Amino acid sequence: MNKRFLVFLIAMSVSGKFAFAQKTESEKAADPDSTGVVNSALLPSVAPLLLFDEGKEKEEKKEKKKKARKNIWFGIKTQRGYTRRELRGQSYLEYFNYTDIAKTPDPYIRDVYWYDTRDKSIKTSGYTQGTGYLLHGPYERVINETVVESGMFYYGTKHKTWMLFDDNNVLQDKNHYNEGWPEESRISYYDQSQGAIEEIIPIQYSLEEGNYYYFYDDQQVAVTGEYQYGEKVGLWTEYWDTNNTKAVRRREIQYQEVPYTKNFRPYIRAEWDKDGNLIYRREL
Known about the structure:
Layout: H1 3-30, E1 37-38, H2 54-70, E2 72-73, E3 76-77, E4 79-87, E5 90-99, E6 114-116, E7 121-123, E8 133-143, E9 146-154, E10 157-165, E11 171-178, E12 181-182, E13 186-191, E14 196-201, E15 203-204, E16 207-208, E17 210-215, E18 221-228, E19 231-239, E20 247-254, E21 267-272, E22 278-281
Antiparallel strand pairs: 1-20, 2-3, 4-5, 5-8, 6-7, 6-8, 8-9, 9-10, 10-11, 11-12, 13-14, 14-17, 15-16, 17-18, 18-19, 19-20, 20-21, 21-22
Protein name: Antitoxin component YwqK of the YwqJK toxin-antitoxin module
Signal peptide: 1-21
Keywords: Signal
């Protein structure tokens, strides 16, 4: 065989293998399951603070009237805002206070309320610093001049007592929060004196409602998921214990997308080894 032709064939073969490898790496980069290693935002450096301090609440009540005059809430100077819209002949108004202080919301809290200045609306997801302002202070929702909801926010999270009214302004429901956590929530500890949390089960209306967390004894997140109306929904994720070096998914279990879905059976969606290599994925 001609030597030049042989060299050409070898070069083409190597080139083809290289191109194939490049394509594979590109495909892996586009595949969210290609690695189990994920954002480490849930490592213990930001473990939830569950401070249900009744004494502090009493002191805040004493200062409430004085602070209200100056728009100072929980020691923070705020500004007032409102939204307005008309729908089917009814007028909907929201009155709120907000802060321009840049603060990263607690990643453990499901609903973070913020004012989007681009479309002048209040949203509960998608907040990043610079996109809007966290609600902070009193809030009222009004329909046709009747208050139907009122409460307080603390850096974008529901705080203290929240009340719901009917269209005759008759109280229908009352809930208590502490920086986004329903005060009915059940919390268990490895060591309560050290604040070493084992499990957080969010409870509202005597049903599981909100984000669920289970922790290893070194306070690294072990399991995350969401409850709605007492039912597990969406993806529940288990993590490897890596001694707080990084967050690596162990497996994901898919539950119903909405509660009370008939004939739905949960299934394992994917699994990874401790190094984050994909070892199983259910193909639909």
